[in-house]
């Protein structure tokens, strides 16, 4: 029997009274694995009210006690790591290795949330004027919410609610309707870690439920990760209701290949970073820019990419899993056909891919294009599939100009043996996250995830110090005490309690 996904409201896992339900499917088989409710307005209101009431007491909890909840939580996440990865694989289709990485990168952020006290420190200046001191306090906002995508159902929720809650806020999570099961398990473990009733709520649904969160007066801040059109919508609608918003959008990440680079390293890293996780990650390398004679390596790249076979999550021979849905597969196949029609050379075509024993899965094989130009749709659009497009330029300056002319700015990398070339690239490139001989430069959580330009809408980024600032306000206190008011005399007694 297909399970019904519960809501998590006011510290209880409860069945929704909704009459609108969404089918959750396994993308490797397209068989139903769960039924997801679209939370009613009354349920949404109840979740936000619970979070509002919980904030009153939670913000008063000592920062060290909040940190201890996160210590316990990261311990439980590690203890249940493999179980979470298996659950995640069943709803996303990710192979075991990718799923474990998804969970682990989330755990790393929770470890930083356990270090919240050092990130909540203000600043002090003594004697800013005669007998006057000024100091700042870092205080929580209130009720925050997160709207998360399908492609990282453990990592991205864990980017959000642990840091927000550790900072003293309460949180309403609305996970992707395509992959709700992992988020529910994360909530169960958070409760087991000792999180008080009402500190975290989990609601489900689609656009109506998102709009409810964006418009509700009690929600102070909104975190979002997803596609460009939805990120733009979330940012504009959320800010129009006077909310603080961080909206992480799409990408078109380029790897520049210099002719002096290590050829084997280039090819190995290009293959893994382009087709890994079926290309369904905002930091995937989807464009290779070959400089000068490096273009001669494209034929070798084609040979290695052809070895990458998709398969089921527990297939040890599989390099990656299926796309998330039939709709996603159809979109990728359509872009592959557009690339051919627009004159790109399809060096490797994965559009007819089949996996033995799983005929109904959303499979797309590794696909490689050469001869691509910047006016082609396969270059201009984020494909979000296991498709790599290759462009050729003569100089590093041309490569930098090409990338800076692209509307996105999430991540990029350069492979070279020349330090001066690497320094010029990192200095001049207008992209927020740069890798030097590193294909996917996602920073560890003591830094922040810093996409630029069309890949991000907002001011303060995810995790790290910037996330703490996003989920808090700064209060500045200026104090003056008069020495003449100090009590004196033989009968003075001071009682300390």
Automatic annotation (TrEMBL):
EC number: 1.2.1.27
InterPro entries cross-referenced by the UniProt entry: Ald_DH/histidinol_DH, Ald_DH_C, Ald_DH_CS_CYS, Ald_DH_N, Aldehyde_DH_dom, MeMal-semiAld_DH
Keyword field: NAD, Oxidoreductase
Ranges where the Aldehyde dehydrogenase domain occurs: 15-477
Enzyme class per UniProt: oxidoreductase
Family annotation (Pfam families): Aldedh (PF00171)
A biological process from GO: thymine catabolic process
UniProt GO MF annotations: methylmalonate-semialdehyde dehydrogenase (acylating, NAD) activity
Gene3D superfamilies xref list: Aldehyde Dehydrogenase, Chain A, domain 1, Aldehyde Dehydrogenase, Chain A, domain 2
Oxidoreductase found in the keyword field: yes
Domain of life per record: Bacteria
UniProt similarity note: Belongs to the aldehyde dehydrogenase family.
Name recorded for this polypeptide: methylmalonate-semialdehyde dehydrogenase (CoA acylating)
């Amino acid at each position: 029997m297909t399970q019904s996904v519960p809501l998590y409201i006011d510290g209880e896992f409860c069945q929704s009274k909704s009459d609108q339900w969404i089918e959750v499917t396994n993308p490797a088989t397209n068989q139903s694995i769960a039924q997801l409710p679209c939370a009613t307005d009354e349920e949404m209101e109840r979740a936000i009210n619970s979070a509002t009431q919980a904030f009153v007491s939670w913000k008063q909890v000592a920062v060290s006690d909040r940190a201890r909840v996160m210590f316990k939580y990261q311990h439980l996440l590690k203890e249940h790591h493999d179980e979470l990865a298996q659950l995640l694989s069943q709803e996303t289709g990710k192979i075991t290795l990718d799923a474990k990485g998804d969970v682990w990168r989330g755990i790393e952020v929770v470890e930083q949330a356990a270090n919240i006290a050092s990130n909540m420190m203000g600043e002090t200046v003594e004697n800013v004027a005669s007998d006057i001191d000024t100091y700042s306090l870092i205080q929580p906002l209130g009720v925050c919410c997160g709207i998360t995508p399908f492609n990282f159902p453990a990592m991205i929720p864990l980017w959000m609610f642990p840091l927000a809650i550790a900072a003293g806020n309460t949180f309403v999570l609305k996970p992707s309707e395509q992959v709700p099961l992992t988020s529910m398990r994360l909530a169960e473990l958070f409760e087991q870690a000792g999180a008080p009733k009402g500190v975290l709520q989990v609601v489900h649904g689609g656009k109506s439920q998102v709009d409810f969160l964006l418009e509700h007066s009690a929600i102070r801040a909104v975190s979002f990760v997803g596609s460009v059109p939805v990120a733009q919508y979330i940012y504009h609608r959320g800010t129009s209701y006077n909310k603080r918003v961080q909206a992480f959008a799409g990408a078109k990440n380029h790897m520049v290949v210099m002719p002096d680079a290590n050829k084997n390293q280039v090819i190995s890293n290009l293959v893994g970073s382009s087709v890994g996780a079926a290309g369904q990650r905002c930091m995937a390398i989807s464009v290779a820019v070959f400089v000068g004679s490096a273009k001669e390596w494209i034929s070798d790249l084609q040979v290695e990419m052809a070895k990458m076979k998709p398969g089921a999550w527990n297939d040890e021979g599989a390099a990656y899993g299926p796309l998330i849905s039939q709709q996603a597969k159809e979109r990728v196949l359509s872009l592959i056909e557009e690339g051919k029609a627009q004159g790109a050379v399809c060096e490797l075509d994965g559009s007819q891919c089949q996996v033995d024993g799983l005929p109904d899965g959303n499979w797309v094989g590794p696909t490689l294009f050469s001869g691509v130009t910047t006016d082609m749709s396969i270059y201009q659009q984020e494909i979000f599939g296991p498709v790599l497009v290759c462009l050729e330029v003569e100089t590093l300056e041309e490569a930098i100009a090409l990338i800076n002319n692209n509307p996105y700015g999430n991540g990029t990398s350069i492979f070279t043996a020349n330090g001066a070339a690497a320094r010029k690239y990192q200095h001049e490139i207008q992209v927020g996250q740069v890798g030097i001989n590193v294909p996917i430069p996602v920073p560890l959580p003591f830094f922040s995830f810093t996409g630029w330009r069309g890949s991000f809408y907002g001011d303060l980024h995810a995790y790290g110090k910037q996330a703490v600032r996003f989920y808090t306000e700064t209060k500045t206190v200026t104090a003056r005490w008069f020495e003449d008011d100090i009590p004196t005399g033989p009968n003075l007694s001071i009682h300390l309690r």
